[in-house]
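Notes, p. 3: input format for complexes.
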Amino acid sequence: MDSNLESYHRILTVNIAKQQEKQFLEVPFRVGENVEEIAVNMTVRAQNDERATIDLGMRGANGIRGWSGGARSTVILRPDTATPGYLPGTMEPGDWAVLLGVYEVPAQGVTVELSIDCVPVNPRWLCGDLHSHTVHSDGAFSIDEAANRAQACGLDFLALTDHNTYSQNLGYPRDLRVLFIPGMELTTYAGHVNLIGVAHPVDDFRVASQSDLRGYLQTAATRGALISVNHPLEMSCDSCAWRWEWDSVVDAVEVWNGPWHEANDKALAWWQASLASGRRLTAIGGSDTHNLQDPYVQHGRPTTWVYAEQYRRDDILRAIRQRRVFISYAPSGPRLNMSCGPYLMGDVVPERGPHLVRVVIERLEADDEILLISDRGIEQRTVAGQEEPALAMEVTRHGERFYRIEVWRWFQEVEQRLMAAMSNPIYFEEG
Ligand SMILES: [Zn+2]
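Output follows (431 residues plus zinc ion):
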């Protein structure tokens, strides 16, 4: 992926005469390869502030992409979201045009200024919540309310994982507030599993046996769903803990469900043992937000961060499969990064690959405790100092199977030391 592409920014000025009223005009511009987002802003200037109405729309290289008439002066197109009235989709390279409808122009004419930005594909960390409920099952939020709440706390994406249904996936908005990811929480009487990324992952949900479960999970996997076992060691709910076998099609495990609590400690210990045994399940987080009853169960608590090639649903799912994921207690929590030469968090470094592992942690607070953990246990413990919001360290691997990071913090409001952030491992191939 070429991340050195220049962002294309241009301002085009068009003079429109009174005689052009009721015509449609095209203002052409060129879109290059690997564009992720196009944003257009229109300013209309008439002499003496006389009344003028210019309608706005967009044509892509392959056809009309939308029309907002006189309702808007800004349009943004992205692969999976767009300004209402416009179609999300690929920014195909070629000849595009801003469409202007000359509705109403004063005698002296008007000047239209168009600011056009073509933002290149830009691999980056995106943050979201992979587990949430709406009125489509036992949640209190409409989808619109969920979108507003996710936007207000700064999330880039939100998975809708209502219990044993997919009606929530049929009509969610594609506007710019948050990128929705379709999902379903397959809720059995012996454990819950999220099927993330496709609108209709299974045709039935009534799991009565291990072979039923295997069949449904295989159907979901075939249809492209990412499969994540939820709160596997939940203790406060009889039927919530995972009592089925761990099927080979499972991609991920929700090690961090809602505010950090004892069941998360147990899930973490289970995951660590699983990693040490050689299995490489992606650890993800999910708030499991249903309503406003508990002030600590909120969208984005915890937040799952994924290193995605583009702000696209498929890239977010791919990043989770690639284990390029860390989790923080909130969108504002610590940020974690690990690399070993060209290899990133989640990658497997070959045996003959580089040995120096670089760890960068940002948004730390004084006295945060940083643990570097391998299959052998805690390798290093560091305490963040005052005025030390970022920390970089280098460690050399010596036959470990993986390194991963945990950040623990004293939260005064609950008077407890809790997980503030945790990474997925960077893995090392064994000799
Ligand atoms: Zn749930």
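The helical segments are 143-152, 210-222, 262-276, 313-321.
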